[in-house]
Amino acid sequence: MKVTLFLIFTIFSTSLGFANYLADTTIVEFTDKQINKKITVHTSGDKEIELPLSLDLNSILINLGIDSNDREKTLVLISSGSGKKDTILLINRDGQRIKIIARDMFKKANSDSLKTTNEADLNAWNQNTQGSFEKKEPEKPAIEKPKRFFSKSDFGFYLGLNNWTNSSLPNSQNYNLRTWKSRFVALSFRKNVTLLFGEKSDLAFSYGPEISWNNFMFENSNIPFVVNNQLTVKNASYITQKSKLVIPSVNFPVLFNIGLQESKMKLGVGAYAGYRLGSYTKTKDLDNNKFKTKDDFGLNNFIYGLTGELGRKNGLTIFIRYNLNDVFKSDQINTTGIQAFSFGLRI
């Protein structure tokens, strides 16, 4: 009974002893487009093999005398390979030993590895090509985190108007101020610490020093005087183009700010405290003669109050401030209960 031996060895299980036993000769090397593999055929013995005109693995196996069952098994094994080099050993009807080496077309084989099937060479070939066949996980798209609403620090320029409450004073009309000439100016250096960071809104704590100037411009040529340590405001003996009381101070406001991501609006509420750096009056008559007087004018040294802000992110902001303590000291009889406020824009 004719028995055809069919032996299959992959590169992971090729036997060193059996490989050394085979003294093979390369008879053909070609690319089989049907199975998309590069094929090298080795055979032993001196029998001449007539090659077919069409070089494909099936035709070669027919000419080598491999029966149909073994051919079918060989084609299936090589076609379903995992992408690494496969070595298949066959024996034809005449007992001639045949070795088939298949590899992917995009991976060039080392010429020395085709001449031997010993285990060391096969392992080395695997190590060199293993990285090309490793399955890579698809890269996950980067999730863009929403940006923080508030910058870590900012600089602001305050420009607004001043006024004060004086309706309960005797001769209160003397303390009336020129609305559009009484100005508030400040330079603000601010730090923003984000406390809550969300998709729709951020909450930040803002703080920092500022330098401010309150300019209180009087109406009708009224001028502040100090007589016996008491401040009074009365009409001057000459007509003035302007008459103002200037109070520079250093302040420290703190605010809790809410920033809305969708509308890009921000709202802040807080408080402030400050210290008066000095004070002076400045007048100018119709002949442009200027007069400047430095004094404390019975003013409080410390100020404190409440503040609020509303505006656009990185845009104009409306502010309002209200002093909770009196502008002047409690021993000033003529100015009892005067509290200042200001409002305007922070740029």
How do you describe this structure in short?
This protein has 347 residues and is mainly beta.
What does this protein structure show overall?
By secondary structure, this protein is mostly beta strands. It contains four helices and 18 strands. It has helices at residues 16-21, 57-63, 68-79, 119-133, and strands at residues 6-10, 25-32, 37-43, 86-91, 97-104, 153-164, 183-197, 201-207, 210-217, 222-227, 230-235, 240-260, 265-276, 280-285, 290-294, 302-312, 317-323, 340-346. The strands form three sheets. Strands 6, 7, 8, 9, 12, 13, 14, 15, 16, 17 and 18 form an eleven-stranded antiparallel beta sheet that branches. The protein has a five-stranded antiparallel beta sheet with strand order 1-4-5-3-2, with helices on one face.
Q: What is the CATH architecture assignment of the largest domain?
A: Beta Barrel
CATH class of the largest domain: Mainly Beta
Mean pLDDT: 79
Helix and strand element order: EHEEHHEEHEEEEEEEEEEEEE
Strand content: over 45%
Contiguous low-pLDDT stretches (5 residues minimum) are 1-23, 107-118, 128-135
Taking Cα atoms only, what radius of gyration do you get, to the nearest Å? 48 Å
Task: Write down the domain tally.
Answer: 2
- Give the total of beta strands: 18
Quaternary arrangement of the chains shown? single chain
Span of the ends, CA to CA: 103 Å
